[in-house]
Amino acid sequence: MKKIVNVLVVLLLSLAGTARAQFKFLPDVEYQAAFGSEIRLASGWTYSLSPVSVNEWSDMAGRSAANPYTADYDFKSMVDVVMVGVNRNILTVVSAYKYQVAVRIDYKVAKPLTGGYTTASENIVLLLSYHPDSLRQYNDLSVYKFSGAGEFTATITNIQRVDPVSGALSAVAPSAVAANFFIKTEIHAQRYDKKAMNLLAAACSLSVGNRNLNVSCYFHTSPTGDVSTGTTAYKPASYELEWTYVDDYKCNPATGEITYGFTSSPVTQVQYD
Asked: What integer is the mean pLDDT of 14-28?
């Protein structure tokens, strides 16, 4: 029995060591979206979504050639996406349609060698179709992908209905856009840091953006040195998120002291950034 227990302990320790070595470098995804019910309120074309940008955009755009962001971090990939599709999460009955959606993309690309950024625009056309008969074939999602833009805005400049027989086009007013129509913009960014990451974290901060919990950390410049300064906050590969449920506690009104033990029953969960 003792031998079996020893073997199990060694096996569990081996598995624990293996788990700690596994990292998931998942991309950060930022997005903006608009649905038919929102677009119908527009007085006319054009209809613009709010700009979508990577978390680091304000820092990237504000750097100079003497202090480029690429000295601190860069991106393995930065994929930009514009999509139009059919929203299946509504109960409204919608008639069959086929749309030709014209979209203008205004984007910004950071220029670390010269500082600042450049701007450009392009026009695209996306086709989308829907039919309430689930046995009929239709195209419920159309996607356009490009890369390199740290921030961009998508604007619907026109929607036209395509006749299923003749292929003739007819204008669709914003007020007549199908209730299950949507347009969405996304940026998928995989960032990596160029600074040494084996130093002790001095402080970490949390921020909420586009329903995501963003985690960034500042590090000591040396084991006994000062906290790193500037605008760069390094992104951790993984972190532990701990919280507790507070049911009842008392607060001393004179001192502001809270007598509840917040560490008595916390829930810990490992997250990958």
From this structure: 53
